[in-house]
Amino acid sequence: MGMPLLAEHHWTPEELLALPWDGQRHECIGGVHVVTPSPSEPHQSVVTRLLAALIPYVDAAGLGNVYSSPADLRLTIGALVQPDIFVVPADQTGRGWEGVRSPLLVIEILSPGTARYDRGLKRHYYQSAPVGEFWIVDAEARLVERWLPSDERPEICLGSIAWRPSQDKEPLTIDLPALFRKALFDETGADYRP
After folding, report:
1. First CA to last CA across the chain, in angstroms?
2. Residue 176 in this model has a pLDDT that exceeds 70
């Protein structure tokens, strides 16, 4: 379950990095320490399908690199985040996580224990940090919430989502029903519940 630890304490990235390894993801935003346990199989299946769609597009367009968590990103001072998926522009690759300052895209896949933080604390953070676009993937509802930095409300994408990080490139269009069908149903057609 994603929940803050010792909310009255103002956490720093250095304190998180000094914690002993416990197999969980530790993030801090605005001094709040958020702990997330290992993701479920359906969660990881959605991550894998999104990576499979993003990597060939990003490579062919020469945009940079696509990564998945764990990765300790410090997009602003005093924060440390580990997005599920993120796209780093070419001029920020090869410099370690500390060189990542403005991802083109950040994606979080909701889990029951993380939804509150993904839609609240993290969304506000990613909208104020230098992130081109932020997606919240709700696998249970089979939709994606697209947030741009100045948005007060998300664009809700049900049929497809088109990502166009550069006006001089064709957009990547992802068929969402097909993605969720491949990610969340087994070979017998039984539905996984994220």
Report:
1. 13
2. yes
